[in-house]
Amino acid sequence: MDITVLFFLILLLIYRIVSLNNYGVPWLIAFLCELWLTFNWILVISTKWSPAQSKIYLDRLLQRVPELPPVDMFVTTADPVLEPPIITVNTVLSLLAVDYPANKLACYVSDDGCSPITFYSLVEASKFAKLWVPFCKKYDVRVRAPFRYFSDDKATPNGKNVADLSEFQQEWKTIKDEYEHLCRKIENAVKNSTPFDGDGEFAVFSNTERKNHPTIIKVIWENKEGLSSGLPHLIYVSREKRPMHPHHYKAGAMNVLARVSGVMSNAPYMLNLDCDMFVNYPKIVLHGMCILLDPNTQKEVAFAQCPQYFYDGLKDDPFGNQFVVLFRFVGTGLGGLQGPFYGGTNCFHRRKVIYGLSPHDLENTRILSEKELVRNFGSSREFINTVALALEGTTYAPPQHNISNSVETANQVAGCGYEYGTGWGSQVGWVYGSTTEDILTGMKMHTRGWKSENYMPDPPAFMGCAPTGGPASMTQQKRWATGLLEILLSKNNPIFGTLFGNLQFRQCLAYLWFYQWGLHAIPEILYAALLAYCLITNSQLFPKDTGLWIFAAPFVVLHLNSLLEYFETGQSVRAWWNNQRMSRIITMNAWFLGIFSVILKILRISEAVFDVTQKEESNSGDGDDEDAGRFTFNESPVFVPGTTILMVHLIVLVMKLLGLQEPAKNGNGSGPGEVFCSLYLVLCYWPFLKGLFGKGKYGIPSSTLCKAGALAAFFVHLSRLI
Ligand SMILES: O=c1ccn([C@@H]2O[C@H](COP(=O)(O)OP(=O)(O)O[C@H]3O[C@H](CO)[C@@H](O)[C@H](O)[C@H]3O)[C@@H](O)[C@H]2O)c(=O)[nH]1
Ligand SMILES: [Mn+2]
């Protein structure tokens, strides 16, 4: 099917070239847009062509339990309002309860919001964890994020026969009450944050501002006895921030976590999660280790990436943000190349790769000199020592000291001036310079010659929450388009990686395909404009005779092809259509604005910022389920392009209907092809059409309507002039 689509696209291009002389500039522009589409399709085919997935043999690993290496687990949160603390708490609880020797785990939470409420929530959560974790392990609970576990109101033990059902039910009830108690405490704290201004543990938070405060590191829980059945260490980290110091958003937070954990536990492996991604499958750390400990992959695989799945997904994916098809086909496709992209969450890393090691370095074990270490990693002697251990390390010695003793050093390496003049953000750690730091960091590793592995267990390893509503989806997509384009236009362009580094050619094509997502906005908007122009001026964009089939064929096959992918992943026609139309909406709105913010960055007018996505505590249960999938709007300029396009096409269709078009020149007036495409576009913009008449957040705000109306009128007028 992929090849058939390509065949038809090439046929179409040839047709355009051959008949170019008979039609004017519009055909040339259309040709360029279609050329872009074809080029893009080639990149897609290359990416999907040779799929592969990893398979693991857990029983083999389980024979070597005493040898299991320590793993440091990172969670990032940035804003207690956009990311309610109870969500972070659930993620942390699910991590503390994973099936892995607890004395080999440490959980670090980075709080870029510097919020006493987040800290308080974690302290309370660690108390609850003392009940929760043993309960989970005793009854082999599958989903260890309590809010998901207790969303099922019945006390049903997991599969196996529980010897004493009433005992289980008793315990279940107690724990549920405790969890509700925890939720209430956190809710109260959120409602009135005043109690924290006082003294005790919270004194450090007084007089702090989110963007201006010293480092705050607190060891909330330490597994002092080193019990494998106990609770993992839990450490709260809020790195220093000062107004004049760039903090590099999430990448900066991850680098601080890498250093703080380095001086505290220095585990050779790391698992990193966003605050909203809980562990859905408690054996996943064992699985991750299966991949990374495999003697064959030791020398080649940098990281193991699990896909992102989302809980409480709305029926038929109305916002097109579940990405099931993308993860399935592109994810496995990459698996057959150099490996999946790093997705920023759900990923197991090797510490030494994060520290900049390449597979090549492993072969000629050159010990870095003291000077080189300081230049790359900064001046903390204690930290440098741990780096040297991590870079050498094939043997994992448990840390000799207890972690509370290293708080002072940790404070030092979490300072905002620590990275100044070092390799952090370029040679080592998470890479700076893009709001999609994840993919950039992963690509750097691929460029060094590492591979990565895809891992998709059933049940899904991790579950997160996808943004709901128009504005949140658009913010996220705009940030992605911005971040990806930033990379494309920087010295980190993958083409250089292939020419001068070890990035494989087809992997480079895959990265290119991904990075130029935002640019799709240009041909799509041009095409929409051309279509309207041709209908207004009664000229042709498509042939009328049998030539029309040359255009209809790729259109049909392309859609059929993608429909089949949705069927293959068990989704409905509705879900497919929702994703089709959301692609159009996202491309022409969010990605289009993404291009703008990159241009502003290049012109040094404004920096690209990382806007955090709003996380909902729960999508269901607030009563207005009927409206759950309805598109929402706000005053953001992101909705102007779409509203304009919709208005233009409505005007054009009415003109056509009423015969208000100009008379066709030499008999070549617009015909069914143009009308069909225009109708198709209006159908794609159905949520906007409803928004024209909607009220409140479901309606397009009048300011947007005015702007779009003026632009539409201008366009129609201009089209008639030229
Ligand atoms: O200054 C910041 C901004 C964000 N974050 C954290 O970054 C994570 C991701 O933020 P979110 O708003 O949820 O963005 P998404 O678009 O959902 O995230 C996807 O895209 C990001 C890159 O744009 C990646 O970093 C994420 O891992 C990936 O899941 C969250 O845990 C935030 O707390 C910080 O720690 N500091
Ligand atoms: Mn997220």
TrEMBL record:
Its membrane topology: Multi-pass membrane protein
| Subcellular compartments | Endomembrane system
Membrane-spanning parts: 29-46, 548-564, 585-603, 638-659, 671-688, 700-718
Question: Any idea which residues are catalytic in this one?
Answer: 112, 438
Q: Which domain of life is it from?
A: Eukaryota
The UniProt GO MF terms for this protein read:
cellulose synthase (UDP-forming) activity
Q: Does the keyword Nucleus apply?
A: no
Q: Which keywords belong to this entry? A: Cell wall biogenesis/degradation, Glycosyltransferase, Membrane, Transferase, Transmembrane, Transmembrane helix
One matching Pfam family is: Cellulose_synt
Q: Name one GO biological process term.
A: cellulose biosynthetic process
The entry's Mn(2+)-binding residues are 250, 274
Positions annotated to bind UDP-alpha-D-glucose: 83, 112
The GO cellular component terms are:
endomembrane system; membrane
Its protein name is Cellulose synthase
Organism this protein belongs to: Quillaja saponaria
